[in-house]
Amino acid sequence: MHVFVTGGTGTIGSAVVAELLGNGHTVLALARSDGSAQTLENAGAKVLRGEIADLDVLRSGAAQCDGVISLAFGRDYSSPDALTQAIAEESAALTVLGQELIGSDRPIVTVSGTPWVPGRASTEADPLPTDGPVGGRGRSVNALLDLASRGVRSTAVRMPRTVHNEGKGGFAGLLADTARRTGVAGYPGDGTQRWPAVHALDAAVLFRLALESAPAGTAWHAVADEGDAVRDIATVVGRRLGLPVEAVSEETFGPFGPIFAMDQSASSTHTRNALRWQPTHPSLLEDLENIQP
After folding, report:
1. Which of 25, 61, 17, 62 is closest to 43 using CA atoms?
2. Angle (deg, nearest 10), helices 230-241 and 170-182
3. Which part of the chain has CATH 3.40.50.720?
4. pLDDT at position 255, please?
5. Alpha helices, DSSP H only, in the chain?
6. What does CATH list as the number for 2-162+197-225?
7. Which CATH code is given to the segment(s) 168-196+227-265+283-290?
8. Taking a C-beta distance cutoff of 8 angstroms, is the pair 232, 207 a contact?
9. Least enclosed by CB within 10 Å: which of 10, 42, 47, 252?
10. Mean pLDDT of the 178-200 span
């Protein structure tokens, strides 16, 4: 397959591009800078210059390819307004990409987060939240999956709160960045809340499997670790950085504070059984040992 990939230089995207190229596919990847373009070309991908907000460029990329993997998302999480803007851009991009594929039976795989279900691990059958801080993502993903009835093999891979590689990435990475900034490896609440996690290289395999064979209108969980206690995550971060580990206020983590405080474990039993996906790379707590002081 010739696959159009957005967000191809991020933690997940770079792993997805390598996974596709290593399994017989070719890649056309969106690049917004000279540096990103060079990185993608060095990996073996062809480059389409533009940004996620360039809707005509996105339409052109989808038109040239046999399938799409949409991973691009804004990088500014410094305020609720910035997060809202990133969600709005992603929603517009998914709308354009989906419309381009209507009636073609071509696949498009997008990304979202695993849902939160009080008292138990969420599953692939649980709906995404459509309200709250990230409700807009749920609404745009649902709209894309609804295109299954219009000749689009649309699927969604739901990512856990931490996608990691070499001790970096996801919520655990943000926690480590906050620790470096504040001098404390902090956690909100009592730290018993759980975050699911997956290694980026394992997640990349699932994106490929979904692209190749997942039925239209389906959602999958890229979850390797069902739930690590946030206090345990902070403990490894603190030890690696030589910083004290203690409870801090939610406000320490900006717009992510309320999300950081939630217990949000998730299961991937159905995904593993149906798509024969089996994570093989280090767990989050093992991988955090790669954090550099």
Report:
1. 17
2. 50
3. 2-162+197-225
4. 80
5. 11-21, 34-43, 55-63, 80-101, 135-146, 170-182, 200-213, 230-241, 257-260, 269-275, 284-287
6. 3.40.50.720
7. 3.90.25
8. no
9. 42
10. 96
